[in-house]
UniProtKB/TrEMBL annotation:
Family: Belongs to the class-V pyridoxal-phosphate-dependent aminotransferase family. NifS/IscS subfamily.
Catalysis performed (reactions): (sulfur carrier)-H + L-cysteine = (sulfur carrier)-SH + L-alanine
GO molecular function: cysteine desulfurase activity; iron-sulfur cluster binding; metal ion binding; transaminase activity
Record carries keyword Membrane: no
Protein name, entry field: Aminotransferase class V-fold PLP-dependent enzyme
Length: 377
């Protein structure tokens, strides 16, 4: 099976699995227990993983909060900030996001919208990017409790102008969250330089780690002052009271190892992904010139993600036809009754949406394996 759906999930890397195994077997201690070695070993493993994640994104290790994945990270920040700073007795209920966010962001804002919050959903351009000046204007006017704009789009692959956004929110001191799930390990991230980003979500299974584990970075207000928010999960007070529940040590170790590998291999992976992507897009440009349209522009995009329209070809039929030997995506869970909100926000017609395919590569692929695309007529 030729797997070309690496934005949906990735294969767990053997080194990651190897690192996890002891914590599923002999090292089964609870890191919240005290004094005996099983607990201490688990605690040490969690501390190492926390540092590995911090090193990947350029923050302090006590700013890394483990969650069950990016869906939970996004929910935690959006609901947690809304609740903590937007309680009944406080006037401001404004929140800000875009029309091209992942459902775990959009639907969370919709949930809040039904509970009295005033959410502004910003338009995006044809590549699903936000307009920085428009965001600045609305933020200055509305003083939103939180603004959430994704770093890289999971369907089209466009990168948002994150540096400019960070700059705006550094200057106006309003809370800014970014969903970086699709960019970790694919673009350099240094939160010490991007001071306007107060919260960042990530997930292990998009970078060779296990499913069911992710993190949210919650930057401190200052060296000693932690940012406050209402937790999603109340209980034993783990994760600095942000997220209760016994830590999934094996998964955390897996996330840490995946983060370490992502940091070490960032440059070579990006180079390889770009090389494979150019090879693939050249095939399309040369062989199917008038039969395809690319949805993303070539610059400022996630390397290895190609979203394109096969003109006049139903995407689900094409995916099914090729499914015996390859795994492709229509770009999202795009059912015939509910087409992609992202492509819709970029101005595509329903017909164009239903002809869109997303191909997401991995650095391990060979050029030869992509050669079969030359036979598509
Ligand atoms: N945000 C983005 C941009 C994503 O692509 C995904 C995964 N499809 C998520 C959030 C959710 O991540 P998880 O599977 O870890 O909950």
């Amino acid at each position: 099976m030729l797997y070309l759906d690496n934005s949906a999930t990735t294969k767990i890397h053997p080194e990651v699995l190897e690192a996890m195994m002891p914590y599923l077997q002999e090292e089964y201690g609870n890191p919240s227990s005290k004094f005996y070695s099983l607990a201490e070993n688990a605690k040490k493993a969690v501390a190492i993983a926390r540092q590995q994640v911090a090193d990947l994104v350029g923050c302090d290790s006590d700013e890394v909060i483990f969650t069950s994945g990016a869906t939970e990270s996004n929910n935690m920040i959006i609901k947690g900030i809304a609740d903590y700073y937007g309680r009944e007795d406080q006037g401001n209920k404004n929140m800000l996001t875009s029309k091209a966010e992942h459902p775990s962001v959009i639907e969370t804002f919709e949930f809040l919208g039904e509970r009295g919050y005033e959410v502004t959903y910003m338009d995006v351009d044809q590549y699903a990017r936000v307009d920085v000046e428009a965001i600045k204007k609305v933020a200055d006017q509305n003083q939103p409790l939180l603004t959430s704009i994704m770093w890289g789009n999971n369907e089209i692959g466009s990168l948002n102008p994150i540096q400019e956004l960070s700059q705006i929110f550094e200057e106006n001191k309003l809370f800014f969250h970014t969903d970086a799930t699709q960019v970790v390990g694919k673009v350099p991230i240094n939160l010490k330089e991007l001071k306007g980003i107060r919260f960042l979500s990530l997930s292990a299974h998009k970078m060779g780690g296990p499913k069911g584990i992710g993190a949210v970075i919650i930057r401190k207000q200052s060296k000693e002052i932690y940012t406050r928010l209402t937790p999603l999960l109340h209980g034993g007070g783990q994760e600095n009271n942000y997220r209760s529940g016994t830590l999934a040590v094996h998964n955390i170790v897996g996330l840490g190892k995946a983060a370490e590998r992502a940091a070490i291999n960032l440059e070579s992976n990006v180079q390889r992904l770009k090389e494979l992507e150019n090879y693939l897009t050249d095939i399309f440009k040369n062989n199917l010139k008038d039969k395809i349209k690319f949805n993303s522009d070539e610059k400022d995009k996630i390397p290895g993600l190609v979203s394109l329209q096969f003109i006049g070809v139903n995407n689900e039929l094409l995916i099914k036809k090729l499914s015996d030997y390859t795994a492709l995506s229509s770009g999202s869970a795009c059912s015939s009754s509910k087409p992609s909100h992202v492509l819709n926000a970029t101005g595509k017609s329903l017909e164009e949406v239903r002809q869109t395919i997303r191909i997401t590569l991995s650095p391990e692929l060979s050029k030869d394996s992509l050669e079969f695309f030359t036979r598509i007529k």
